[in-house]
Amino acid sequence: MVRTIKLISSLALAASLAACGTDTGSGDRGSLALGPSTPGVTVTTSDGSNANRSGFSLRLTDAPIDGLSQVILQFTEIELKPERGGWIRYTLPKPRPIDLLALHGLTTADLLVNMPIEPGVYKQLRFLVDDAPMANKIVMKGGGVKNLEVPDGSSVGLRINQKFTIPEDRLVNFTVDFDLRKSVNLNRNLGLYKFKAKMRLVVDSDVGFVRGSVDPALLIGPGCSDADVDTHNAVYVYSGHNAATDDINELSTTKNEPVTTTPIMYDSASGLYIYEAAFLPQDAYTVAFTCNADLDDNETDDILPFFFTRNVNVLVTDKTFLKP
After folding, report:
1. Is the pLDDT of residue 138 over 60?
2. Domain assignment present for 319
3. In terms of domains, do 173 and 102 share one?
4. Which member of 29, 129, 213, 286 has the greatest number of CB atoms within 10 A?
5. What CATH code is carried by the domain that includes residue 258?
6. Are residue 166 and residue 251 in the same domain, yes or no?
7. Rounded distance between C-alpha atoms, residue 169 and residue 22, angstroms
8. How confident is the model at residue 14 (pLDDT cuts 50, 70, 90)?
9. d(Cα 187, Cα 149) in Å, to the nearest integer?
10. How many CB atoms lie within 10 A of CB 116?
11. How many structural domains comprise the chain?
């Protein structure tokens, strides 16, 4: 049997920056006309300034993991740190639970919409989560609920140390992509789950996605972990063409870590088993298929067999896939 991965398309996500204000010849600036914002959010700054000259929206998505039916984090606050000045804090009216496992591919969840913010360069974004017992939890596919430990989740939070810019008089749409395969760690001896967030922040107008299909016979072929077409099958995405493929090992500094991972799932509309790796910056990538994703332990050096690889290019066009 010939094993092949058929590439359907390299498409693009785009959600253009909305220019809501204008500059006049005299230097007067028009006001930013934000649409309806997330209700009940309290905005505070450490220096008492008014964060209202630009705006942003923040959505969440994820790259899923096998064996679980839900991964729930309960968010309480979102904080942004400018290069100069103190934190800007957005406090939700009540803790908001979000099932990250439901957000694979192009699916997103709005966390903050049309929020005011001062323009400028920012260097860090962090999420604070509820630390009450079972506020953050794992729901197993076979039944049962486990507490999900988020170390310092209510104080230090889940942090992205990445520079980004808020332009003047603009509304910018951001997406944070959680990679659950990298983030959820199981202590097999104790049966405890710990969340160490691995995530990327992207501007929606700067990213695209790649989608492809896999012959279902390959998902249960010789060498696969089991004969279940719906388990342990994943595509790993690496930066650059002809990239070296390797497992996930957060303790290693020499590994070629994947940019993201994504499961292979049945699509009832097309009748195909597809993978969809989204929110990728325009660039060259290598996609690699494995039917042994269960062998990949985040904290050990594992021999993870990849059966096929393919070079792809992700482009950004003016076609809009995200809601405004």
Report:
1. yes
2. no
3. yes
4. 129
5. 2.60.40
6. no
7. 8
8. very low
9. 11
10. 18
11. 2
Report yes or no on 322 lying in a domain: no
| Contact (Cβ atoms closer than 8 angstroms) between residue 131 and residue 153 | yes
What is the tens place of the pLDDT at every residue in 270-321? 999 999 888 899 899 999 999 998 888 777 787 888 988 999 999 886 443 3
pLDDT score at 187: 78
Segments forming the whole domain that contains residue 55: 16-205
C-alpha to C-alpha distance for 200 and 256, rounded to whole angstroms:
17
Element (H, E) at 180: helix 180-183
Answer yes or no: do 26 and 167 share one domain.
Answer: yes
Mean pLDDT of 155-173: 92
Same domain for 79 and 22: yes
Give me Rg for the CA atoms of the chain.
21
Structure tokens belonging to residue 277: 């790796």
| Mean pLDDT within 124-132 | 95
User: For residues 41 and 153, what is the distance between their CA atoms, to the nearest angstrom?
Assistant: 20
Judgement on whether residues 258 and 200 belong to the same structural domain of the protein: no
Model confidence at 30, pLDDT cuts 50, 70, 90, reads: very low
